[in-house]
Write a structure and sequence with these properties.
Elements: H1 5-10, E1 18-21, E2 25-29, E3 37-43, H2 58-74, E4 82-85, H3 89-92, E5 101-105
Antiparallel strand pairs: 1-2, 2-3, 3-5, 4-5
Bound molecules: 2'-deoxyguanosine-5'-monophosphate.
2'-deoxyguanosine-5'-monophosphate is lined by residues 5, 16, 28-32, 40, 87, 93-96.
Length: 114
Protein backbone atom coordinates (compact mmCIF):
# COMPACT_ATOMS: atom_id res chain seq x y z
CA UNK A 1 0.00 0.00 0.00
CA UNK A 2 1.29 3.44 -0.90
CA UNK A 3 2.04 6.09 1.68
CA UNK A 4 -0.43 8.91 2.23
CA UNK A 5 -0.47 12.35 3.77
CA UNK A 6 -1.62 10.70 7.03
CA UNK A 7 1.52 8.52 7.06
CA UNK A 8 3.56 11.72 6.87
CA UNK A 9 1.58 13.23 9.75
CA UNK A 10 2.07 10.07 11.86
CA UNK A 11 5.84 10.21 11.22
CA UNK A 12 5.82 13.96 12.00
CA UNK A 13 7.11 14.78 8.52
CA UNK A 14 4.37 17.36 8.06
CA UNK A 15 2.59 19.32 10.79
CA UNK A 16 -0.90 18.71 12.10
CA UNK A 17 -2.90 19.90 15.08
CA UNK A 18 -2.61 16.67 17.08
CA UNK A 19 -5.15 16.33 19.88
CA UNK A 20 -4.69 12.70 20.97
CA UNK A 21 -2.13 9.91 20.69
CA UNK A 22 -1.65 6.42 22.09
CA UNK A 23 0.38 3.40 20.95
CA UNK A 24 -2.02 2.56 18.12
CA UNK A 25 -3.94 5.71 17.25
CA UNK A 26 -3.22 9.34 16.34
CA UNK A 27 -5.92 12.02 16.20
CA UNK A 28 -5.64 15.48 14.67
CA UNK A 29 -7.94 18.24 13.49
CA UNK A 30 -9.24 18.01 9.94
CA UNK A 31 -7.70 20.66 7.69
CA UNK A 32 -11.13 21.28 6.17
CA UNK A 33 -13.33 21.22 9.28
CA UNK A 34 -17.06 20.62 8.68
CA UNK A 35 -18.16 21.27 12.27
CA UNK A 36 -16.89 23.18 15.33
CA UNK A 37 -15.14 19.92 16.29
CA UNK A 38 -13.83 17.84 13.39
CA UNK A 39 -11.09 15.42 14.40
CA UNK A 40 -9.67 12.50 12.39
CA UNK A 41 -8.77 9.31 14.27
CA UNK A 42 -6.17 7.33 12.38
CA UNK A 43 -4.61 3.94 13.14
CA UNK A 44 -0.82 4.22 13.11
CA UNK A 45 -0.67 0.97 11.16
CA UNK A 46 -2.22 1.89 7.87
CA UNK A 47 -5.21 0.06 6.38
CA UNK A 48 -6.19 1.64 3.06
CA UNK A 49 -9.98 1.43 3.38
CA UNK A 50 -12.61 -0.23 5.53
CA UNK A 51 -13.10 -2.61 2.60
CA UNK A 52 -9.46 -3.71 2.95
CA UNK A 53 -9.80 -4.55 6.66
CA UNK A 54 -9.53 -8.22 7.61
CA UNK A 55 -10.14 -10.30 10.74
CA UNK A 56 -6.66 -9.64 12.11
CA UNK A 57 -7.46 -5.91 12.07
CA UNK A 58 -10.38 -6.37 14.46
CA UNK A 59 -8.52 -5.35 17.61
CA UNK A 60 -7.01 -2.27 15.96
CA UNK A 61 -10.41 -1.21 14.63
CA UNK A 62 -11.89 -1.67 18.08
CA UNK A 63 -9.16 0.44 19.64
CA UNK A 64 -9.74 3.12 16.99
CA UNK A 65 -13.44 3.36 17.79
CA UNK A 66 -12.92 3.23 21.54
CA UNK A 67 -10.26 5.96 21.36
CA UNK A 68 -12.72 8.11 19.42
CA UNK A 69 -15.51 7.58 21.95
CA UNK A 70 -13.21 8.17 24.93
CA UNK A 71 -11.96 11.43 23.42
CA UNK A 72 -15.53 12.61 22.80
CA UNK A 73 -16.46 11.78 26.39
CA UNK A 74 -13.39 13.54 27.80
CA UNK A 75 -14.06 16.62 25.70
CA UNK A 76 -17.64 16.82 26.97
CA UNK A 77 -19.14 16.06 23.56
CA UNK A 78 -20.85 12.75 24.32
CA UNK A 79 -23.92 13.92 26.18
CA UNK A 80 -25.12 16.25 23.42
CA UNK A 81 -23.82 13.82 20.87
CA UNK A 82 -21.64 13.60 17.84
CA UNK A 83 -21.31 11.84 14.52
CA UNK A 84 -18.62 9.39 13.43
CA UNK A 85 -18.04 8.70 9.74
CA UNK A 86 -15.79 6.29 7.84
CA UNK A 87 -15.82 7.07 4.13
CA UNK A 88 -14.97 4.12 1.87
CA UNK A 89 -13.79 4.43 -1.73
CA UNK A 90 -15.24 6.67 -4.43
CA UNK A 91 -18.96 6.72 -3.68
CA UNK A 92 -18.19 6.99 0.02
CA UNK A 93 -16.24 10.16 -0.69
CA UNK A 94 -12.90 8.81 0.55
CA UNK A 95 -9.98 10.97 -0.55
CA UNK A 96 -7.15 9.80 1.72
CA UNK A 97 -6.53 6.05 1.45
CA UNK A 98 -5.47 5.46 5.04
CA UNK A 99 -8.57 4.40 6.96
CA UNK A 100 -9.77 7.05 9.41
CA UNK A 101 -12.76 7.93 11.56
CA UNK A 102 -14.17 11.45 11.30
CA UNK A 103 -15.48 12.76 14.64
CA UNK A 104 -17.89 15.65 14.04
CA UNK A 105 -19.45 17.56 16.91
CA UNK A 106 -20.53 20.94 18.20
CA UNK A 107 -23.57 21.44 15.99
CA UNK A 108 -26.75 19.61 15.03
CA UNK A 109 -26.12 16.93 12.41
CA UNK A 110 -28.74 16.07 9.81
CA UNK A 111 -29.83 12.83 8.20
CA UNK A 112 -29.75 11.70 5.46
CA UNK A 113 -26.39 13.18 4.46
CA UNK A 114 -26.00 14.76 1.04
P1 LIG B 1 -11.93 11.40 3.54
O1 LIG B 1 -12.62 12.22 2.49
O2 LIG B 1 -12.89 10.59 4.39
O3 LIG B 1 -10.82 10.56 2.95
O4 LIG B 1 -11.30 12.44 4.53
C1 LIG B 1 -10.03 12.99 4.38
C2 LIG B 1 -9.99 14.22 5.23
O5 LIG B 1 -8.63 14.55 5.45
C3 LIG B 1 -10.64 15.45 4.62
O6 LIG B 1 -11.76 15.84 5.41
C4 LIG B 1 -9.58 16.53 4.64
C5 LIG B 1 -8.51 15.95 5.52
N1 LIG B 1 -7.14 16.24 5.14
C6 LIG B 1 -6.61 16.05 3.92
N2 LIG B 1 -5.31 16.40 3.92
C7 LIG B 1 -5.04 16.80 5.20
C8 LIG B 1 -3.86 17.28 5.84
O7 LIG B 1 -2.78 17.39 5.26
N3 LIG B 1 -3.97 17.61 7.16
C9 LIG B 1 -5.14 17.47 7.85
N4 LIG B 1 -5.13 17.82 9.14
N5 LIG B 1 -6.26 17.03 7.27
C10 LIG B 1 -6.21 16.70 5.96
Amino acid sequence: MGDTIFGKIIRREIPADIVYEDDDVLAFRDLNGQAPVHVLFVPKRAIATLDAAVATDAELLGRLLLATAAYARREGLAEQGYRTVINCNEHGGQTVFHLHVHLLAGRQMHWPPG
